[in-house]
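Team,

Forwarding the record for the chain on the shared tracking sheet. I've put the sequence and predicted structure together so nobody has to dig through attachments.
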Amino acid sequence: GCLHNSAGCMAYVKDSMGLVYNDGWLYYVQDSLGDNADFLYRISADGSTKEMLKTWTNAGIEDKWLIHRGRIYYIKHNWTLLEDSVEENFRVMYIDLDDPLKKEHLIHTPKDDTTLYSENSIMAYGNHLYFRDTYSVNGEGLKGILYIYDIQTKQEREIERGIICGFQDNKMLLWRGTSGIDERGGKLYRTDLDGNNSQIVIEDMPGE
């Protein structure tokens, strides 16, 4: 029988950055490990079928992606190799999984190309997508902004120094520091999913 330990096996997954089950399929992004490309695959739940859906060349998706309501949302790290340097930028994108061409759609362009993204930089709940920019301010220090993107209206809202702690009863739990992104104290709020109607839950909450 199959040992499930080589590319010849339909159920074999190599160098995966996350594994998500959606509508009868397992999706994963494969890191090319130095080949300047990442790949989106899906495998049927019984392991009998594997399909490569998308290739990102000169770009990385890493672990910053999710599937929500028939779309894959992701933070795309683009780079171009120049003679003596690398030109790079980030974009927040999505692809409709039922689109046979797997066309990319742009959601957000960061304020500048010094933007950094960390793990769990992108989340989704209900009709909203959440992602954070962390970028330098005049070359001194860092500033963090939480963006709330309405999937239906395509409107975007900014909340400075916002970090999502979780969701409960169709509400968002949001920690906000007093300044910068490296605060050790702040307040915990309960808000609507779009960030409106905030109420303080904890007055003095330790930071990260």
